[in-house]
TrEMBL record:
GO MF annotations, alphabetized: ATP binding; ATP hydrolysis activity; branched-chain amino acid transmembrane transporter activity
Entry superkingdom: Archaea
PANTHER family: HIGH-AFFINITY BRANCHED-CHAIN AMINO ACID TRANSPORT ATP-BINDING PROTEIN LIVF (PTHR43820:SF4)
InterPro entries: AAA+_ATPase (IPR003593), ABC_transporter-like_ATP-bd (IPR003439), ABC_transporter-like_CS (IPR017871), BCAA_Transport_ATP-bd_LivF (IPR052156), P-loop_NTPase (IPR027417)
Domain ABC transporter, first and last residues per copy: 13-246
GO biological process: L-amino acid transport
A Pfam family per the record: ABC_tran
The protein's name: amino acid/amide ABC transporter ATP-binding protein 2, HAAT family
Keywords: Amino-acid transport, ATP-binding, Nucleotide-binding, Transport
Protein family membership: Belongs to the ABC transporter superfamily.
Length: 250
């Protein structure tokens, strides 16, 4: 088997593979020759300074932005530039940082909206999600706008899970939350992962995000500056100094 065949086979076994991607907005390029991957069952955290292009990565994978160059594959299948509604049907979920629930709808209505593309089985899936996230079951008739920030984030996760995605893209799950709630939200991310969903997560709270992850990427100026196991990134003095706030952060 040639080296090229070996690489192709490895990519086919990955839940998600991003290769040589350039992307941006209008004429402004944000991502430069981006390469990253997500193995089945993993949590991978994408960290970096503001403006590094982290959210752009998720938007490009999810088809909200069309890559200028490069490719994105899902389980070895080319999904480059595929429309979001088609990606949802193919097993990719996305939880944006803002506007991730319908405030005027109840929890139950939000979950059903998350499953509009399902042809069957929605009752069973929603029932299982209520068992997994009892806070939603207990408030199922409450309007989403009445929920706390942490509860809204749980609802956003659950709504994305109604389609039973193999891959979930999460943008800044702890953004805007009180420190007392952040730990609970990260536990919910792990719960989602335990359901069998591989997660690519953008997180500004780098230490907390890496602490629950298998691997991590440090993005800087639209390119991968560092890639390693999450624990090794946390222990890397240069990464700590440049991106984690150094010793003063600890």
């Amino acid at each position: 088997m040639s080296a090229e065949d070996t690489v192709t086979e490895a990519r086919a076994k990955r839940a998600l593979d991003v290769s040589g991607v350039d992307s941006g907005y209008g004429e402004a390029q944000v991502l430069h020759d981006l390469n990253l991957h997500l193995e089945r069952g993993e949590i991978v955290c994408l960290i970096g300074p503001n403006g590094a292009g982290k959210s752009t990565v998720l938007k490009t994978i999810f088809g909200l932005l069309k890559p200028w160059e490069g490719s994105v594959t899902l389980d070895g299948k080319d999904i480059t530039g595929t429309d979001p509604e088609d990606l949802v049907r193919m097993g990719v979920g996305y939880v944006p940082q803002v506007d991730n629930v319908f405030g005027s709808l109840t929890i139950d209505e939000n979950l059903r909206m998350g499953g509009v593309a399902r042809s069957s089985g929605i009752e069973e899936v929603i029932s299982e999600l209520y068992e997994r996230f009892p806070i939603l079951r207990d408030k199922r008739e409450a309007k989403a706008r009445t929920l706390s920030g942490g509860q809204r984030q749980v609802l956003a996760f659950a709504r994305a899970l109604v389609m039973e995605p193999d891959v979930l893209l999460i943008d800044e799950p702890s953004a805007g939350l009180a420190p007392s709630i952040v730990e609970d939200v990260f536990e919910d991310v792990q719960t989602v992962n335990e359901l069998g969903t591989a997660i690519l997560m953008v997180e500004q709270n780098a230490r907390e995000g890496l602490a629950i992850s298998d691997r991590g990427y440090v993005l800087d100026q639209g390119s991968v500056a560092y890639e390693d196991d999450a624990d090794d990134l946390l222990d890397n003095p240069e990464v700590s100094q440049l991106y984690l706030g150094g010793a003063d952060y600890e």
